[in-house]
Predict the 3D structure of the following.
Amino acid sequence: MPPDTPIGIHDLAFRTTSLALTHSELARHTGANIAKYHQGIGQYAMSIPAADEDIVTMAAEACTAVLERHGSERLRTLILATETGVDQAKAAGVYVHSLLGLPPQIRVVELKQACYGATAALQFAAALVRQAPDEHVLVVASDIARYDLNSPGEATQGAAAAALLIGAHPAVAALDRISGLHTHDVMDFWRPTYRTTALVDGRKSLDAYLEALEGAWLDHQKRGGLPLQSLHTVCYHQPFTRMANKAHRHLLRLAPTSTRAPDSTALAATTHYNRTVGNSYTASLYLALASLLDHTAGLDDADVGLFSYGSGCVAEFLTARITPGYQQHLRTEEHSAALSARRRVGYDEYRQLHDQSLPTDGSTLHIPGASRNAYRLAGIDAHRRIYCRTVQPTIAPA
Ligand code: HMG
């Protein structure tokens, strides 16, 4: 393969849960001023999983969309990135592989590093494609953000899965080989294996995010990465959408004073999905990219920055060049349909779902059908998760 063969995102689809809680409804019960949610953190609603939805069902939804369009013939690797793992040993992607009816000749693995996992998966996928340019790698980022009730993090919950098909001569965006990295041991946000909700030091997490942005950006620049003024905009990891504004202000302070800032309308275009989905952890950055592409015409050959941050912390700054003709490959209507299909829940139903837990003692649980999506968790039996498909996919056979 010629060394300059473009490799990157050939397709990008996201899906979310069947339910949503608006911040107006949350504010009625927390007593917060709604302006704090809408203006202060830039959030309007959050996706809430139904009792029979989890990272596997969301990932299967997103992957089905991609495979219905491209088939599975060239697929040799499926990487599922998550920090909401459902098993300490078995990769959640194996359940997805089974639900999608994929052939056995595929390597499946799970990756974790907080919200950064999907970006590591993207880079590993690009390396695999460089090694075998005829192959596709399916990367799926799937997460559910859950914090304790009445905690500052509660308003930043959310859930979604983003599936990215990585290949040579990508139809959507080619990844630049130069990227900037930053790793630093910090306890800003973490979730020990015995907890279902994350622990977070909110203030420290904001500082750690900005420090990591600075570290990754400076490394990117040192390695000859594109300067800020060459970028149409930057898609940031969005734990809440106002974080993108904070991050962007910080980045501008690091750029030479003569730098013409990318325009703020472009930054706003990256936030449409995350402000009603909430934090989808490792999927969040790719919902920001989908939002930019779905809401912006004329990006042919534009360079876009991508900043990936995962608490703990690992961060990466990379850039992607949007492929001419990308608009023919978008899924704008599907994305908007996935969001508008969610049923709005009231506060009591949200509380009930938040309090619910699955058996940990091997007892059997049958979960009544609640999801409006095609895949559901039907129950737990002898410590085994039982998934089922309510709608047959039309994936082209391998
Ligand atoms: P908080 O204490 O609820 O809120 O915590 P606050 O008092 O800091 O207010 C938030 C903003 O609203 C402030 O804006 C207020 O001024 C404003 P800022 O000063 O920061 O620009 N505000 C108002 N604005 C208009 N009208 C009003 C009003 N009242 C207040 N009436 C916090 C906020 C984000 C800390 C909390 O939600 C939290 O702990 N969230 C979880 C942690 C988090 O999201 N951290 C982000 C960086 S770390 C990260 O991104 C990684 C992560 O995704 C995990 C992973 O990697 O896996 C979290």
Remarks:
- Residues 33, 35-36, 39-41, 83, 114-115, 152-153, 155-156, 188-189, 200, 202, 205-206, 209, 237, 239-240, 243, 279, 281, 309-311 surround 3-hydroxy-3-methylglutaryl-coenzyme A (CB under 6 Å).
- Residues 202-222 form the longest helix (21 residues).
- The chain is about 30% helix and 25% strand.
